[in-house]
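Hi W.,

Here's what went into the run:
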Amino acid sequence: MEAIKNLLFRMADDELIYGHRMSEWTGMGPIMEEDIAFSSMAQDKIGHALANYSILEKEFQTANPDKLAFFRKENELMNCQLVELSNHEYDFSLVRHFLFDHADFIRYEMLSTSSFAPLAQLSKKIKGELKYHVLHADTWLTRLGNATEESHARMQSALNELWNYALGIFEPSDFEAELIAEKIFDGEKVLQQKWMEKISPIIEKANLKIPSSSAPVYGGRKGYHTDQLQPLLTEMAEVISSEAEGTEW
Amino acid sequence: MTATIFNQQEIYKSLEEVMDPEIPTLSVIDMGMITGVEETVTGVRVKMIPTFTACPAIHVIKDSIQKKVESLGYENVEVQLDDSIVWNSDRITPNGKILLENFGLGTPQRHCGNFGMEEIAHSKCPHCGSEDTTMNSIFGSTLCRSTHFCFSCKQAFERFKPV
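Here's what came out:
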């Protein structure tokens, strides 16, 4: 029970925080198509967060999704640090999108055969939607990796900067053995292996190199975050905090 | 007041008039969103599935279905999200695909769950019918659409994505 809850919180918090980071490109994208792409993906992510929080509420009687999303403290959030980092240049956002969405897609693919039926059913739906996110990421990674000297250098530098954070996606929980034994989820280790197998040839096709030294940035899954998360949480909850208790929209 | 006698066919027929708010010429039946109409002890249950997890129109659609069935005289109408079935674009009816084209959207080909970038990128032009088109972006003005361009009639168009 605690094992499934923990898994759902990790996933929902990833989607919530990353959805908000993606939405920051709305109205700011470098070209209109990309503005629309990041806005659409942000909408998907927030929808996926809502779906996961809804399972928590329905199956485990937690607080409702709005309360979970907007009224938890920073150290109660279990998202990986990769998704909370502030956006910089577009290259940074594209490389993060590539690294995170491949992991996210494979995670839902694995969960579509989970023994926990509500999550299996949801995952079948979500993986179909994430297919588009992954295709979008692959297109831009290979295009910009192979375009000009500057675009190549920018993509490589973003990859170097984000690599250790990306490895933090797979920070093991205290429930790995239980999740695996009960056939709920094959675990972060298997996910990471599959992810490496999937992204390595694409990175090669983009003429980029995976950094040779790696030191995963762990902590996010246990509630330790960078100083970039709290300002985002404050901004996200600004409207809902200003209204009277029980306000209906 | 006596409740109306349950008539499944009549309810299905009425749902042909409940439109998708994002494509107002297509009904929830054409979209393949209705998965069941059942009699309950006190009334009627309509089961439906959203097209996308993050579909913002879902509450509007649920309300419209409820009001429509109530307008036939039924009481205790319940619209339930059916989580046993996953929506995909193969569920759009043949009539629905014609209506999509008439609305100016390219249509998704039947894929039986198996499709990749080629199927996603290739769409017939809904304006002139040409196959000589290219995809500009896999995202569009709503989650269910991608954006394309036709080399024959030199028009941009949107397409309902294969999902």
